[in-house]
Amino acid sequence: MISFKRTFIFTFVSAICIAGAFFAGYLVSVTHPASADLPVLHEAYEILRDYGLEPIPTAPALEYGMTRGMTEAYGDPFTRFVEPPQHELETNSLQGKFGGIGVQLGNDYAGNLPP
């Protein structure tokens, strides 16, 4: 009987500790949102969500738009974001076999025509 009471008390205290940890995590996530690093972006999202005339785009569309804007702001002309469907099309069009002998034809005379 004593063993049952100890087991019950241990289980009860463990459950309370686990519930407390989840509750503490919830409070931290509410008071410190993940977007605290990008307050302007978070504020713009909230304004569009609350006052925008059109519905908010889907999460992938927002994510792709933010990533595209970030790569443009990066300022490197050789860095660009390609969405996965477009990337797959580009990758598929580049796959295959390439062949040839590497010949280029062109005019290479300096205005001297043969008689």
How is this structure best described in words?
- It is a single chain.
- Helix content is 61%, strand content 0%.
- The chain has 4 helices and no strands.
Quick recap:
This protein is an all-alpha fold. It has four helices and no strands.
Primary descriptors:
115 residues, mainly alpha, 4 helices, elongated
Element layout with pairings:
Layout: H1 2-31, H2 39-51, H3 59-74, H4 84-94
The total beta strand count reads 0
Residue fraction in strands = under 5%
Number of helices: 4
In which range does the helix fraction lie? 55-70%
Outline: elongated
Class from secondary-structure proportions = mainly alpha
C-alpha Rg (nearest Å)? 31 Å
Euclidean distance between termini CA atoms: 121 Å
- Low-pLDDT parts are none
Largest sheet: none
Chain-averaged pLDDT = 79
Task: Give the ordered list of helices and strands.
Answer: HHHH
